[in-house]
Amino acid sequence: MQHGPAVRRRKLGAELRALRTSAGLTSGEAARLAGWHQSKVSRIETGASGVKPPDVRLLLDVYGVADPQLRELLLVLSGSGDGDDRHHWWHAYRGVLPPTYRDFISLESQASAMRTLETTVIPGLLQTPEYARAVTEAALEGASEERLDTLVEVRLARQDVLRATPPLELSAILDEAVLRREVGGPGVMARQLNRLVEAARLPHVRLQVLPFGAGAHIGMTGPFVIFSFSRTSDLDVVVLDHLTSSLHLERKEDLRVYLEAFDALSIHALSPEDSLDFIAGAAAGA
């Protein structure tokens, strides 16, 4: 269990090592073609040291990697300043967003699928501007209006992944408390619940409600997010949010535990169809 940058270095190194092996090169041959010392390739592959985007591009060229999506994903893993800034819009908010949040957005922007259990708030990708502002105000008591405006702007910009081609496949399990907690007042909550109803009808969004009647469940330990990547499952990661930081779980054993937990919660939750009716009912009563 580690913080984002360390996980990214290790995942990037492992993927670059696999690509080198596929290219039929030893670490010494790769270093010679890149004009480096062999120890630099070794440090990158073990995650012992960071690697800058230009070096990643050079290695990908040496290994003959032409797939633009794979190249983009590996550049994202090389750090918060990686890749093409035209595609990484969150770089413009470096002065406002903590590194852990930028890490989260970078993973979210490159993932093909996202599974999330939410126990307290509506998922950020489905929040209305009013709801997002109310949540942000509560989390950052005393923050300036300007900072609140910026953070809400970031929250809404993140939602573009659901309108991308192809869009992010989002599966969310919501504890009933998420729907019952009145955030921002009755009007704000009613509009937010109606937004959930709209989102639940999208083909790439799957929402399920875990009602109070389900009793005790494994999700009571707290919310989590699982990011999956279509190009390589070795980059899949679980993210756990804390008040001041995020932790990333990368081991296959940890991923399996959280995937099994999500599947178990999905069984105990209402079906997507019944969940839609449940949310619509909550919206009518808000």
Would you summarize the structure shown here?
With 286 residues, the chain is of the alpha/beta class. The protein is 50% helix and 12% strand.
How would you describe this structure to a colleague?
Residues 16-70 form the HTH cro/C1-type domain. This is Helix-turn-helix domain-containing protein. Pfam families: DUF5753, HTH_31. 50% of the residues lie in helices and 12% in strands. The protein has twelve helices and six strands. Helix 4 packs antiparallel against helix 5, helix 7 (129-139) packs across helix 8 (145-158) and helix 10 packs antiparallel against helix 12 (272-285). 33% of the residues are buried. Mean pLDDT is 88; it is low at 80-86.
Topology:
Blueprint: H1 4-22, H2 27-34, H3 38-46, H4 53-62, H5 68-77, H6 99-110, E1 113-118, H7 129-139, H8 145-158, E2 169-175, H9 176-180, H10 186-200, E3 205-210, E4 224-228, E5 237-241, E6 246-249, H11 252-268, H12 272-285
Parallel strand pairs: 1-2, 2-3
Antiparallel strand pairs: 1-4, 4-5, 5-6
The overall strand count is 6
How large is the count of helical segments?
A: 12
**H/E series, N to C?**
HHHHHHEHHEHHEEEEHH
Report the major sheet.
Answer: 6 strands, mixed
Strand residues, percent: 5-15%
* Unreliable parts: 80-86
Class per helix and strand makeup: alpha/beta
Distance between the termini: 40 Å
The average pLDDT is 88
Radius of gyration: 21 Å
Helix content: 40-55%
* Anisotropy-based shape: elongated
Largest sheet, spatial ordering of strands:
3-2-1-4-5-6
Domain HTH cro/C1-type: 16-70
Protein name: Helix-turn-helix domain-containing protein
Pfam families: DUF5753, HTH_31
Organism: Streptomyces heliomycini
